[in-house]
Design goal:
heterodimer, A: alpha+beta, Sulfite Oxidase, Chain A, domain 2, Immunoglobulin-like, five-stranded antiparallel beta sheet, five-stranded mixed beta sheet, 7 helices, about 10% helix, B: mainly alpha, Cytochrome Bc1 Complex, Chain D, domain 2, about 0% strand, disordered N terminus
Chain lengths: ~425, ~110
């Protein structure tokens, strides 16, 4: 390998994976002492410093073969911009609300919720999707088959993690502590699930779908699935569910399910199986991993915070509740003038949002925002309004969406043991000075 | 499989540097607060997942016990023998309880 090879983080990481000692020699110009603590020389540190944008004062303490975390995180999150990483194995990352301001979420800003280890082989040319179980004719389809045999459509579709907002539960609920940004609305291109199921022929005994992806369980045990969820067949046969092979006109991001995934808007993101390889139809409610127990389930009645709830009293979450997110101004913003434009999105699973109201006085008075119609069924709706801050000081901007069934966002969290469905109002702090 | 092992090792080292540079509380155990039991907790937990998911939780002692039972029953973890088991449960329920004294800063 040439020592003059162009320096980029990918080639650095590749060599560190293959031969960490050699990588140290080439990229850092350093050779470890026999005990591997400290280094004989460090002439090449400047090259690494230029990659990570600073010198490394404690470089002598850096163990041999260590990849600086700044580079490693960047590598793990390649193609993503500004996301907050909650967990790196499995990878989970959310988007700060002010970075979700676009009407259509760029791929670089779409959150990541992995349950297992993504597959390494994701060749779209050899990928196949199997449709079987209770169908008349089982199908095995390549991505090229999907494109040639079915209508290809592009739709803006909202995906929200069932646990978005879990961080605010008290007592705390187990799992990733998502705040606001496990939601996105990208444009997805693919074929309708219902067209593919109808082509296979849905047998009348089929009541539920079961989805399988190519990701590995964290234990790496052969054949053990990290997650396999499903939905009632009536839902699967609706119009806005896609088997998608493009996100915003390009290949899917590797952590958003490349090369093929389901997109089930308005239901917990876990229904939208990534790295999709198989859908089979069943005559029972699917019982794959994270379908049973208390996963993606909430109590069948209101419960007290901290209450122990019997497993038999949990119901599977279906549609996600009405919610809104303020994407401008960013929380903590200082403004110099009294006039401020407030922008954001609102959504309600399987429903349309009818109104969004904004308050600057802790909910005493509200003003109605301009609200766009959804780009299509399953897309979030954009809202905006001009507010006038009466004098200098601290304000909170609150937003409240109301859907076409009359449901509004609550002030307080409807606590449940696993921390799902937090659709309480979003509050943004603004200083006028 | 070899790749995965390398990956585990790398994330161990990555985790170990994170707090040295980013926090006043230096820890060799990634985001885990460096108190008795941190080493056992780090080693067992990071066999399958990052310590970052551990450090986000705030559970009662009973909650932590249930979580480890679930990992054995459903997530392919081998049961943790004593004395490590008690050290880990003591550590988690002291430093990662419902008051969240060590919730990671973002």
């Amino acid at each position: 390998m040439s020592e003059n090879k162009k320096l980029d983080s990918q080639s650095v990481l590749d060599l560190y994976e293959k031969d960490p000692v050699e990588a140290d020699r080439i990229y850092l110009g350093r050779v470890a002492h026999k005990d591997r603590r400290g280094f004989l020389k460090g002439a090449g540190l400047a090259t690494l410093g230029s990659l990570i944008g600073a010198s490394i004062p404690f470089h002598r303490n850096m163990p041999s073969g260590l990849i600086p975390v700044a580079l490693a995180d960047e590598h793990l999150m390649a193609g993503k911009d500004g996301l907050t990483m909650l967990n790196d194995r499995p990878l989970n990352a959310e988007t700060p609300p002010h970075l979700l301001d676009d009407a259509i979420t760029p791929t670089s800003r779409h959150f990541i919720r992995n349950n297992g280890i993504p597959p390494e082989e994701v060749n779209p040319d050899s990928w196949t999707l199997t449709i079987d179980g209770l169908v008349d004719t089982p199908l095995k389809l390549s991505i090229a088959d999907l494109k040639s045999k079915f209508d290809v459509v592009t739709m803006a579709l909202t995906i929200e993690c069932g646990g978005n907002g879990r961080a605010f539960f008290n007592p705390p609920a187990k799992g990733n502590q998502w705040t606001y940004g496990a939601v996105a609305c990208s444009e997805w291109t693919g074929v309708r699930l219902k067209d593919v199921l109808n082509a296979a022929g849905v047998k009348k005994e089929a009541i539920y779908t079961a989805h399988v992806g190519a990701d590995d369980h964290l234990s790496m045990k052969e054949g053990k699935l990290p997650i396999s969820r499903g939905m009632p067949i009536e839902k699967a046969l609706t119009d806005n569910i896609l088997i998608a092979f493009e996100q915003n006109g390009q290949a899917l991001h590797p952590h958003n399910g490349a090369p093929l995934r389901l997109v089930v808007p308005g239901w917990p993101g876990s229904c939208s199986q990534k790295w999709l390889t198989r859908i089979y139809l069943r005559d029972v409610v699917h019982d794959g991993p994270k379908m049973t127990g208390t996963s993606y389930r909430v109590p069948n009645r209101p419960v007290e915070p901290g209450e122990k709830v019997d497993k038999k009293d949990f119901n599977i979450i279906e549609r996600m509740p009405v919610k809104s997110l303020i994407t401008a101004p960013a929380t903590g913003t200082s403004v110099a003038g009294s006039d401020v434009e407030v922008r954001g999105h609102a959504w309600s699973g399987d429903r349309t949002v009818s109104e969004v109201h904004v308050s600057i006085d802790f909910g005493v008075t509200w003003q109605k925002a301009e609200l766009d119609a959804p780009a299509n069924s399953g897309a979030w709706q954009n809202f905006k309004t001009q507010i006038k801050l009466p004098q200098q000081g601290y304000y909170e901007i609150w937003a409240k969406a109301i859907d076409d069934a009359g449901d509004a966002q609550p002030h307080a969290i409807n606590w449940n043991p696993k921390g799902y469905l937090n659709n309480s109002m979003h509050r943004v702090a603004v200083r006028y000075s | 499989m070899f790749k995965r092992i390398v990956c585990v090792g790398a994330s161990l080292l990555i985790g170990a540097t994170l707090n040295v540079s980013a926090s006043e509380e230096e820890s060799e155990f990634g985001l885990l607060v460096n108190k008795p039991g941190a080493e056992e907790t780090f080693i067992y937990c990071t066999a399958c997942h990052s310590e970052k998911i551990v450090a986000q939780q705030g559970l009662t002692r009973e909650g932590w016990e249930e979580l480890l039972v679930w990992m054995v029953d459903e997530q392919e973890m081998d049961p943790i023998e004593e004395p490590d088991y008690s050290r880990i449960i003591d550590y988690l329920s002291k430093h990662y309880n419902t008051d969240r004294p060590n919730f990671p800063k973002r």
